[in-house]
Description:
Layout: H1 17-33, E1 37-38, E2 44-46, H2 47-53, H3 59-64, E3 67-69, E4 75-78, H4 83-92, E5 102-111, E6 123-132, H5 137-153, E7 159-165, H6 172-185, H7 192-197, H8 203-206, H9 211-218, H10 229-247, E8 254-256, E9 268-276, E10 286-290, H11 294-297, E11 305-311, H12 312-321, E12 334-339, H13 341-356, E13 361-363, H14 370-380, E14 384-389, H15 390-395, E15 397-402, E16 410-413, H16 416-422
Parallel strand pairs: 1-5, 7-8, 12-13, 12-14
Antiparallel strand pairs: 2-4, 3-4, 5-6, 6-11, 7-9, 9-10, 10-11, 14-15, 15-16
The site of one zinc ion has 8 residues, from helix 10.
Amino acid sequence: MAFKTPRGTNDILPEDQAYWSYVWGTAEQVAASFGFGRIDTPMFEDTSLFRHGVGEETDIVEKEMYSFDDLGGDNITLKPEGTAPVCRAYIQHGMSNLPQPVRLFYENPHFRYERPQAGRVRQHHQFGVEIIGDPSPQVDAEIIELGWTYLSSLGLKNLSLKINSIGDGACRPTYLELLNAHLEHYEDSLCDDHRKRYKVNPLRVLDCKKPGCQSVSVNAPASVDHLCDDCREHFELLKGTLDDLVAAGALIPYTVDNRLVRGLDYYNRTVFEFEPADVKGQSTILAGGRYDPLIEILGGKPTPGIGFGSGVERVILNLKAQGIEVPEARTLDLICVHIGDNARRRLVTLAATLRAAGKSVIVAPEGRSMKSQMRYANNSGARYALILGDRDLEQGEATLRPLIGDGKEVQVGLDAAVIAAEMV
Ligand SMILES: [Zn+2]
Ligand SMILES: [Zn+2]
């Protein structure tokens, strides 16, 4: 029997970890520079949180959740997304009593039963941020600026930024009527799926990738042309602030995309996405929007919120595609090579002292020839080898040989401080 990772999941092996530390490290640094605090919520929640907080009629809840009864009979779900759990935590811990808004970020695996493809896996990892408790377009701009700072700090190039406003409870019903009338008129051209169900969530037709729906969407009424006064003012103020940020070099230019929507009902007003400029299809690497009704839906006081999520697998695919070099994961400083048992025993304690002094050190496997140990040392990626024979031991000296670069080998005393000082 040969066990393998379940379909749609990956092992992240040591050789790939440099990318992961680079992405997580950059995310944490950028989130901190915008004053965000980290939040970790459990891997699983009550299933009803997602039924309420994502919506019954979404693909996520209908087809993609890992839900099951646990041994106590509670129905729980591995979290398929990050916003509902953060809002649940905001309510549960009374964060509305803190100075508003509250700025939170997370780094989480999310679980969705999806058809695996490039950059889409069943356990995928996401960097997400939320600002809860501020309705102003200033924080929309701040969230978008944060997204750009994160992606540009990673070194990603050739990205485009799209924004849209999808209105709110005051103006969207009228807009949806217009949109529905348009879709009804061209019903026969819609894709099979949407011909049957466009009335449930007509906005989804606008971001459908099937040719039929795309052709119908081109001339569909645009939500930005049917905003109420409040939503229009919000959108204008947002664009003004984004223009300022672009002028200051803190953001790339954006376009207003009438077909950019969020599939979930509680999204309102601002939605935005970053994607690689020259890729079509499933290519978004960071997407977000405002979700003012959500906290109330989950049982809290009406409280506005906005956030984004960015899939790490897809970001790493783009880093590799753009040939961006990431800092190497920490390399080994030293490997201790020994000839004779007494030498090996002395090196075991010397290695312990060097580790306590902050060096990364391993002792070569015992019972092997010097030649075999040196081969192991050269493959280990260590910067130095410390070679000690039983006769060296009597003289209290070892050989420190650089394995990388063209430095010369030197004789050193068997003293951790002396050895550490030689390893520059
Ligand atoms: Zn469609
Ligand atoms: Zn409105």
